[in-house]
Structures are given as structure tokens and as C-alpha cells.
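TASK: fixed-backbone design
INPUT:
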């Protein structure tokens, strides 16, 4: 059985359902720019930084803009996102997350955050979870967004645990790729995440031991 010394959680889509707010905000912006933006596009953007997400949308619309306009658009998207996420509270923590974190704390397993979002600390405060984290690495601390493993490597280093003893929880294809490239065991949360070492529709009702028992490193 894998000896897990730390766990690293992604935020959007794993701890809280804010992924839908990112989607709605990008969709509103894309509408204004008259660029089609579908749920399939959004799948590609999960885990991807704000700037890389905007570049994706602009590429899709064959739109070339100067950097000042791009900054304005990113500010606009973020304002839309913040408006949608405004009412987030601790009741929005996805089912299964708190019991898992309790189990980790009881077993002296460190807890880290590895998120591409610059809003991560603000959201964790709203969820009343921030005190549970031994380290938080977010969009403000990285230069390369997922699928680059930087965010997870920084979190593991901050906890002084090597990647193979650090279990990552991810809902995004880019995040699973990032974890695997960094040498981390990774659990997919959601559907269509078969490339993860184990995947579950939701964390509800799962124990850490049960999750570890399902890890399959044959791929
Ligand atoms: C990731 C989300 O967690 O953070 C992406 O999955 C989002 O959808 C990215 O684009 C950056 O977020 P923010 O809050 O810095 O714009
Ligand atoms: Mg996510």
C-alpha cells in the first residue's frame, strides 16, 4: 500500500463547485466578443490560468488584441467570476471533502493546495477551510500553469515530502497530466478522468484508505 505522507487538493471542482462560475464568466465574455464557447472548450480550460484561458478563447475567435485590452478583458472576467462566487459559504464545500480532511489530520497527513487560481485564498476563507492547509500554492505563486507540474512540485517541497508520497486530487485533465508529469499519484474527481491512477465521480463517502487501495499504477 502506498505510503501517503501528504495530500494536495486542487480547488475549483474538487473542494467546491466554482468551476461552473469560471465557465459562466468565460462564456459571458466570449459572447461579448462573439466567439463561440462551449462546454467542450471549458473542459480544455479547467486548471488553466486566467491568461492562458483568455489566449485560448482569442485563438478560437482568430482575434489578435494588444496587451492592455487583454488585461481589461481578464479584469472583466474576474469581476464576473467574483460576482458569481460572492455568495459562496462553508455549505458549498463538496460532500466528502471535510471527512477526508479530518481523516488526514487524525493520521498526521499534511494537506496542501495546488490551484491555478489567484482567487484561491479568498475562496478558502469563504469556505472556512483555510486553517486546515499546511501549505497553499496558487496562481500567484507559479509561472507555469497546469499541465506543467510546478504548482504541485512547489506544494510538495513546502511540505518537505517527495512527490511519490504525495497524493493529488484533481478534476481537470490538465491537472492529472501535471501530477503525472511531476511523479505524483493522482486521484481523478469527476467523469472522464480514466488517465488518473484512480477516479471517482465524487469524494462523498470515501475514506483515504479506500482511495489508496484503489490506486492502479499500471498505466
Ligand atoms: C483554475 C480553474 O483553478 O483556476 C480555471 O480551473 C481558472 O478555470 C484558473 O481559469 C485561474 O483562476 P483565476 O481565479 O486566477 O482566474
Ligand atoms: Mg479544478
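OUTPUT:
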Amino acid at each position: 500500500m502506498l505510503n501517503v505522507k501528504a495530500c494536495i487538493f486542487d480547488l475549483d471542482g474538487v473542494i467546491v463547485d466554482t468551476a461552473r462560475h469560471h465557465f459562466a464568466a468565460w462564456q459571458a465574455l466570449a459572447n461579448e466578443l462573439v466567439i463561440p464557447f462551449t462546454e467542450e472548450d471549458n473542459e480544455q480550460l479547467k486548471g488553466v490560468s486566467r491568461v492562458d484561458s483568455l489566449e485560448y478563447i482569442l485563438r478560437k475567435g482568430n482575434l489578435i488584441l494588444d496587451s492592455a485590452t487583454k488585461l481589461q478583458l481578464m479584469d472583466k472576467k474576474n469581476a464576473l467570476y467574483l460576482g458569481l462566487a460572492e455568495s459562496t459559504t462553508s455549505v458549498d464545500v463538496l460532500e466528502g471533502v471535510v471527512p477526508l480532511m479530518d481523516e488526514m489530520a487524525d493520521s498526521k497527513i499534511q494537506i496542501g493546495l495546488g490551484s491555478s487560481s489567484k482567487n484561491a485564498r479568498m475562496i478558502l476563507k469563504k469556505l472556512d477551510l483555510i486553517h486546515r492547509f499546511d501549505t497553499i500554492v496558487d496562481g500567484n505563486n507559479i509561472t507555469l500553469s497546469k499541465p506543467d507540474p510546478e504548482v504541485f512540485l512547489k506544494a510538495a517541497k513546502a511540505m518537505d515530502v517527495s512527490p511519490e508520497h504525495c497524493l493529488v486530487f484533481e478534476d481537470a485533465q490538465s491537472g492529472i497530466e501535471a501530477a503525472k508529469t511531476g511523479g505524483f499519484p493522482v486521484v481523478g474527481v469527476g467523469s472522464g478522468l480514466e488517465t488518473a491512477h484512480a477516479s471517482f465521480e465524487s469524494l462523498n463517502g470515501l475514506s483515504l484508505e479506500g482511495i489508496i487501495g484503489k490506486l492502479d499504477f499500471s498505466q
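COMMENT: The radius of gyration is 17 Å.
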